[in-house]
Write a structure and sequence with these properties.
By secondary structure, this protein is of the alpha/beta class. It is built from 15 helices and 24 strands.
Length: about 500
């Protein structure tokens, strides 16, 4: 299949905008022009080549977020290798699995983990280990600094792999999603057009860069459009609000928006210069959407995607951004609901990954005969094509023989006075097979459990009503803000006396 290395598309933008600011740290300590990005990517690509990395090799990266980590990402693309980012919270034992499976040529780790990663690399016959810390210093940075600032970008086709991103593995062995250059290029171009991202935009970037959202959605769109990036090592509500008068665009997870709402400095005036707020990676509560609009005058644009597909749907730039909806299929992406509604969402398009790394049988299982990827998400689609997510198929509860979708119950509970947020799960029940359990966080004093159950039962069919309500100070979440329902199921597995 024809196509090109994604980096070539970036390279054209970098050359045309060489003197303009591409990335600046929120504290003002670092400023890189687009010309600096091009030069740094070349130096790092030459460093990778010196360490034995060739086109098609995997490069495992577990480093803290820094401007240098962006240069590394660009360099891996430029060298034609495959970028394998890992969550910085993973332990050495967890990294061991990913390295054994991906068989990289190089591991880049934090300076503090050089010893344990070197031992792991020796065990799996990895050619080299280099390090890079949160300040952008380390053996890889030192090597790159000594390299030539010219490098010929490796030729790649559309189907050649650019990334290998592992799924969370909450329901079994973690799988490596093979992401091609065309998957990334087509998706980023669609988003640039849909969200009207231009060189005049200035993006607030506080997301981690080991995940699709912060890495591919945020960085790739900014690079293609020539947008400036305000770089935050992590989310800080006060710092983000302070930067808003100088920015136009923000991409975040729902937790970002709830924390912004909790900060008194967030006002209509501080957000007046912002053009667009985007949310994804986890469901945004309608309550958050409405509260943010009331406070700032901005309707958050919610979209939907996943590791294997990039972005699938988005609320419109113009027109209603409906709370609880993830909008319409992106141009060039086909979305359908199987069977009756709600049903499993299936998707087809250039954005859809090439399959799971070294798992051909699993790949076949996850695609339909006519080429649609089975997302595992359950949703509805109205007559206009607008999609709403009900939940994950694996989270569906079967109680007394009836299918129960947690989102419907969560919507009822989230509207209850005193409940801030809820997560509904199914746990073993001696009579019903699974019993519906709600775990909530409180925004104020809660009435007794029987009163909440009775109130919910007035809005829900009897089989859907929660049989137990538990309160936690906060719900367990992963790095992208998704509630970890598997953890809750473990915690309350015996609540019905099983």
């Amino acid at each position: 299949m024809s196509g090109e290395n994604l980096y070539l598309a970036f390279e054209r933008v970098f050359a045309a905008s060489a003197g303009r600011t591409a990335l600046r740290s929120a504290d003002g300590a670092t400023r890189l022009s687009f010309g600096d990005l091009a030069e740094g990517a070349a130096r790092y690509a030459n460093a990778l080549a010196t360490l034995g990395v060739e086109p098609g090799d995997r490069v495992t990266v577990q480093v803290e977020k820094s401007p240098a980590s962006v240069l590394l990402y660009l360099a891996v693309l430029k060298q034609g290798a495959i970028y394998q980012p890992l969550n910085t919270a993973y332990t050495a034992a967890e990294v061991d699995y990913f390295v054994a499976d991906a068989q990289p040529k190089l591991i880049v780790c934090d300076t503090s983990r050089q010893g344990e990663m070197r031992a792991l690399a020796d065990r799996h016959k990895v050619f080299a280990v280099a390090n890079l810390d949160s300040k952008g210093e380390g053996s890889l940075a030192s090597l790159a600094a000594s390299m030539d600032d010219r490098h010929e970008t490796a030729a790649r086709t559309a189907d050649d792999l650019a990334g290998l991103l592992y799924t969370s593995g909450t329901t079994g062995r973690s799988k490596g999603a093979m992401i091609s250059h065309d998957n990334l290029a087509s998706n980023a171009r669609a988003l640039v057009d849909l969200w009207r991202i231009t060189a005049d935009d200035r993006l607030l970037h506080a997301l981690p860069v080991f995940h699709v959202h912060g890495l591919y959605v945020a960085l790739n769109t900014a690079f293609l459009a020539g947008s400036e990036i305000f770089w935050f090592p992590r989310f800080d509500a006060g710092a983000m609000i302070a930067a808003m008068p100088h920015a136009t665009l923000m991409m975040g997870v729902p937790t970002f928006y709830t924390r912004l709402l909790g900060h008194p400095a967030l006002t209509r005036e501080t957000a007046a210069g912002m053009r667009l707020f985007i949310s994804g990676s986890a469901p945004l509560l309608a309550e958050t959407h409405e509260a943010f609009a009331a406070r700032t005058g901005h309707a958050i644009l919610e979209r939907y995607g996943m590791t294997e597909t990039g972005m699938i749907t988005s609320n419109p730039y113009d027109g209603p951004r409906v709370p609880g909806s993830v909008g319409f299929a992106l141009p060039g992406v086909a979305v359908r609901i199987t069977g009756s509604q709600p049903g499993v969402i299936e998707v087809k398009g250039r954005n859809v990954f090439k399959g799971y790394w070294r798992m051909p049988e699993k790949t076949r299982e996850e695609f339909t005969g006519d080429g649609y990827f089975i997302t595992g998400d359950v949703g509805t689609m109205d007559a206009t094509g607008r999609v709403s997510i009900v939940g994950r198929a694996k989270d569906m509860i079967i109680s007394g023989g009836f299918n129960v979708y947690p989102k419907e119950i969560e919507d009822v509970l989230d509207a209850f006075p005193g409940i801030s947020e809820s997560a509904v799960i199914g746990v073993p029940h001696p009579d019903f097979g699974e019993g519906v359990v709600a775990v909530v966080t409180a925004s104020g004093p809660l009435p007794p459990e029987p009163e909440i159950i009775a109130a919910a039962s007035e809005r829900l069919a009897r089989f859907k009503g929660p049989k137990r309500i538990f309160e936690l100070p906060e719900l367990p979440r992963n790095a992208m803000g998704k509630v970890q329902k598997a953890e809750l199921r473990k915690l309350y597995a015996s609540c019905f006396g099983n």
